[in-house]
C-alpha cells in the first residue's frame, strides 16, 4: 500500500539504533526525507550511511544526520534548524534507568520528566502550528507499554511517560489541529530486541544470578507471540501512523507488544 507520504520531511529522534532507527528506515523506504537525530555522532553517521545505501529507498530520498542531544534546548534548536519545516516528527529519548524508587532523588525525577515528557512537548509545540498551516502533520511519540501496564523497576519511565500521555490526550483533540489534518499519537512498544531491553534485564541478572540468556528466554515465554519484537516491524507501525491514510487516528495509544498486555482496554 502506498502510504501517501513520499517527499515529506520527517524528524526522527533517537534514530541511530533500536526503535528510532526502525522508524527512520520505514519512513525512508516510503520516500520520506528523513533527518536522523541522536547524541552519538559516530554511531549515527554509520546508521545514516547504511540507510542511504538501502536498495529499498526510492530515488532521490534524502537522509540527513544531525548529532545533537534532543533533550536540551540547544539540541532541539539544532535539530529543528536542519530543515525549513517538518511534516512528520517522531519523538524518542532514551528511557531513564531502572531501579528502586527509594533510591531516586529529585534530580533523577526531573531528568526523567525533562527527557520523556517535556522534550516531546517542546517538539510538538515547535512544529504543530506550521503543520496545521500546511494542512498535514503527523507526530508520533515513542513511549512504552509500561504506560498501560506499569513495571515496578521502571518507575521513572512510568511516571514521565504517563504525564506525556495525559498531555497528548488533550492536545491531540484540539479542533485547530485535528481539523487541519494534524494528528498526535503515542506508539507503545513492549519487549523489542534492543540494547535498552538488555539494560533492563541486567538488574534481573544481578538479582537472580541467572544468565542473560536465561532471563531473556523466560521473558519471551511470557509473551503470547513467543518472541521479542524487531525494530523494523515497530518502524512499520510508526510509518502507518504517519501515513495519509491515518488522518482519522489521533490521540491514541497504539500498543505493539506481541499480545503481552492482558487487558481488554
TrEMBL record:
Pfam family for this entry, one: adh_short_C2
Stated family: Belongs to the short-chain dehydrogenases/reductases (SDR) family.
Identification of the protein by name: SDR family oxidoreductase
Species this protein is from: Ramlibacter rhizophilus
Amino acid at each position: 500500500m502506498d502510504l501517501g507520504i513520499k517527499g515529506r520531511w520527517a524528524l526522527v529522534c533517537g534514530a541511530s539504533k533500536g526503535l528510532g532507527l526502525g522508524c527512520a528506515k520505514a519512513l525512508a523506504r516510503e520516500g520520506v526525507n528523513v533527518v536522523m537525530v541522536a547524541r552519538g555522532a559516530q554511531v549515527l553517521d554509520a546508521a545514516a550511511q547504511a540507510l542511504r545505501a538501502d536498495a529499498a529507498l526510492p530515488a532521490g530520498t534524502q537522509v540527513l544526520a544531525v548529532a545533537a542531544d534532543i533533550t536540551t534546548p540547544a539540541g532541539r534548536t539544532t535539530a529543528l534548524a536542519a530543515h525549513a519545516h517538518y511534516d512528520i516528527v517522531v519523538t524518542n529519548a532514551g528511557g531513564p534507568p531502572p531501579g528502586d524508587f527509594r533510591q531516586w532523588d529529585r534530580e533523577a525525577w526531573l531528568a526523567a520528566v525533562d527527557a520523556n515528557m517535556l522534550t516531546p512537548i517542546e517538539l510538538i509545540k515547535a512544529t504543530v502550528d506550521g503543520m496545521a498551516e500546511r494542512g498535514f502533520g503527523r507526530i508520533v511519540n515513542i513511549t512504552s507499554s509500561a504506560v498501560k501496564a506499569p513495571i515496578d523497576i521502571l518507575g521513572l519511565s512510568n511516571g514521565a511517560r504517563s504525564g506525556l500521555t495525559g498531555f497528548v490526550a488533550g492536545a491531540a483533540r484540539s479542533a485547530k489541529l485535528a481539523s487541519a489534518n494534524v494528528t498526535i499519537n503515542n506508539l507503545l512498544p513492549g519487549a523489542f530486541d534492543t540494547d535498552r531491553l538488555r539494560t533492563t534485564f541486567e538488574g534481573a541478572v544481578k538479582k537472580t544470578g541467572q544468565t542473560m540468556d536465561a532471563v531473556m528466554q523466560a521473558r519471551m515465554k511470557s509473551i503470547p507471540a513467543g518472541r521479542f519484537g524487531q525494530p523494523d516491524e515497530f518502524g512499520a507501525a510508526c510509518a502507518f501512523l504517519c501515513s495519509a491514510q491515518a488522518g482519522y487516528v489521533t490521540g491514541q495509544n497504539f500498543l505493539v507488544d506481541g499480545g503481552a498486555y492482558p487487558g481488554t482496554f
